Amino acid sequence: MNATLAQSSWKVAKIMGIPIRVHFSWFIVFGLITWSLSTRYFPKAAPDLPAATYWIKSVLAALLLFASVAFHELSHSYIAKKYRVSVTGITLFIFGGVAQMKGEPPHPRAEFRIAIAGPLSSFLLSGLFFLVSENTSGGSRALFSYLMRVNLILGAFNLIPGFPMDGGRILRAALWSRTKDFFYATQKASIFGQRIALFFLLFGLFSIFSGSSGGLWLLLIGWFLYMAAQSSQQQSTLQEALLTIKVKNVMATDIVTIDSSIPLEEAVDKYFLRYGYGGFPVTDNGKFLGMITLKEIKNVSRTDWREVKVSDILIPHDNKWEMTPDSDVMKALELMIKEDKGRLVVMKNEKIVGLITRNGIARYLQIMGK
C-alpha cells in the first residue's frame, strides 16, 4: 500500500532528509475542506467578514491542517530514525498521512515510543493553537480554534487501538512486551484492527440509512483500515514463515554469468531474451565483478547497444549484498527491500554458489503452500 501511494505522489519538500510527497487524492480532500470552511464554518464563526476573506482563511486552514499531519508523521519518523529504522518518505493523501518505514522497531519500547510520538505531537499543536486563538479575535480566532480542535481530534483518533493506526501499534508494543513474540503481537493487533474497521463500516452504513452526515466518510475510513490491517496480518504471517527457511533452500544454483567484455546487444540477445531472467552476475576471467539488470540496460539508448559493453554499466559488487547458504531467507528479503535489490548473490569460500531473488522466494512459498 505504501508503494502504491508513493507511485502516484509528487515530492514537495524534504525535511530531516525525508522526502515529503503529496498524493493526488490529497487535492480532493483539500478542495472539500476549503469549500466546507469557506461556505459553512467561517461565515458562522466570523459573520462580519467579506466572502473573499473566508476563502483565503479556508485555504490557509487547509494548508495548516496538512502541515499538522506532516508534523505528526515527522514526529514518528524522528523517533524511528533514533532507533535506526529507515524512513524513505512521508506521503500526504486523502486519509491524512503515512510515513514509509523500512524494517521494524528493534524492541517493544521502541515501537511504543515511535507510535506515541504522533498523537503527542498533535496534542502539542492543539495546545499551541489554543493559546494563539485565545490571544486573537474575529477570523483569526476562528482559524486557530479550528486548527486546535482538528489536531485534538487527529491525536485522539490515532489512539484508537486499530492496527496499523498509532493506537494499534501501541497495542502491538504491549502484546510484544508481554509475550516476547513479535509476530503473535502483530497478528493479534491486526485482527483487532480489522474488527475496529468493521465497526467503522457498520456504523457508516447505519449513518447513511439513518440520514446522518458523514456516513460515506466512515465507510471509506473503515475500508482503508480493514485493507491496511489485513495487509499487515498477511505480511506478518509471511515473515514468520520465512524465519524457518534458509537461503540454501531457496537459492538458484544453476547460475548463468555474463562476461564483462561483451556488448549490451549480445547480452540482451543471448542472455536476457534467451533465459528470461531480470539480472545476471558479471564476471571477468571467472572473477565476480557485480550485477547487470534490465534496469541498467534500459538506461542506455538502443542505438548504443553495440558500442556499450557490460562492464560500462554493471553495478559493482558490494560485500553487504552477499548472503551465505545458511543465512535466513528473512534476512535476505529484508536486505533486498532495504537496498531495493531484486536479487542477491550467495557466496561460499569467496565463490558464487547461488542467487536468491524476490520472485524465487515467492515461488518457494507458493510451492510449499505457505
Automatic annotation (TrEMBL):
Zn(2+) binds at H72, H76, D166. SUPFAM superfamilies: CBS-domain pair. One of its GO terms (molecular function) is metal ion binding. The keyword Lyase does not apply. InterPro entries: CBS_dom (IPR000644), CBS_dom_sf (IPR046342), Peptidase_M50 (IPR008915), UCP006404_Pept_M50_CBS (IPR016483). It is found in: Cell membrane. PROSITE patterns: CBS. It is a multi-pass membrane protein. The active site is at E73. Pfam families: CBS, Peptidase_M50. GO terms for cellular component: plasma membrane. Its cofactor is Zn(2+). Keywords: CBS domain, Cell membrane, Hydrolase, Membrane, Metal-binding, Metalloprotease, Protease, Repeat, Transmembrane, Transmembrane helix, Zinc. Residues 251-308, 314-370 form the CBS domain. Binds 1 zinc ion per subunit. The chain crosses the membrane at residues 20-42, 54-71, 83-100, 112-131, 196-226. One of its GO terms (biological process) is proteolysis. PANTHER family: MEMBRANE-ASSOCIATED ZINC METALLOPROTEASE M50B, STAGE IV SPORULATION PROTEIN FB. Belongs to the peptidase M50B family. This is Zinc metalloprotease.
